[in-house]
Amino acid sequence: MSPSTAAPHDLAPLDVGALAGPMSRRPTVLLALLLLCALAVPARASSSWEWPLGDRRVSGTFDAPETPYGAGHRGIDLPGAVGDTVRSVAPGRVTFAGRVGGVPVVTVTHGAERSTYQPVRASVEVGDAVGAGQPLGRLLGRPSHCVTACLHLGRLRDTTYLDPQDVLAKGGRVHLVDPDGPPPVPPSLGTGELLRPVGGPVTSAFGMRVHPITGVRKLHDGTDIGAPCGTPVRAAAGGVVTSRGAAGGYGNRVVIDHGRFSTAYAHLSRFDVATGERVAAGEVVGRVGRTGYATGCHLHLMLVEGGRPVDPLPHV
To answer: Both 155 and 201 in a single domain?
Structure first.
C-alpha cells in the first residue's frame, strides 16, 4: 500500500532487518517494540470498588425501581458525618459536578459504568482524572433523604441502576467462628443499631401536636417519614411479626417484636409478611401508603419499649 492510500491509523511496517543491524541499534528497536505492546494492551478495569467513606456500613440498601420513574431506592446509603471526605470508588474521570433537583452531585465515569455521590460539596471539576480513593469533596448534611448525614452512592450502566454493594470491596468487620463447634450467641441488639426502614424526610416528629385530621392535640407516638406510595418498607431489626392488619387510624400496620422492644410500621399500602413470620433486619415488610388517618404517602414508624412509645428518631 502506497503512503497516499494508507489508512490514517495504520502503523508503518516494522523493518525486521533492523534487528539484524549493529548491536548498538538493537536496544533502541527492542524498547520501541515494548512500548508498542504496552500501548496495545487496554487498561484493566478494577474488579471491585473501594468504599467512598472510611467506615464500611450501609444504612439504606438498593431497591431497583420496577419502572424508570417508579418507587425504589436507586443506590445505597452510607452513614457518615458532615464534613467527611468522600473518595472515588475507582479510577475514572469526573463527568458531572453540580446540582440535580437542588442536590449537589458528583459523577465519575469508569469506562462502561458511572458512580454518583450526593450530597457532596465538590473539590473536583468536570474533566478531572481521579484515582481510586482520591478525594472528590466533603459530605453535606442537607439536602438529604436521610435523617442524619449519609452519602447516597449510585451505580449506573447506561441508564440502568445497579447495586453498588455487588462491586464494593468485601471485608471489614469479620468474626471467625469454629465450624465444628456450637453456633455463637448473637450480640444483643440495642436500639441504637436500628436500620432506617425507608429513605425520605421527616415530615412530623415524635411528640405533642395537633392532629392534622381530627384537630385534637395529642401525642404523636411515632415519626412520620415522607416517601412515595409503593416504596419498600424494611424491618428496622430482626424479629417476629406479631401483628399484621388494619388498625384504625394507623391504617394497615405491621408490628414486629424484637425481644426487648418492638417496632410498628403504619399506613401501609401492602403487606409483604405474615403474622408469625420471622424477618431479618432490612427485609421488606410492606410498602408505603396512605391508609388510615393520613394526609399523604408516608410511613408512621413507632418504637415501643417497656409498653410505652418512645421517639424512634435517635435510634435510626
So the answer is: no
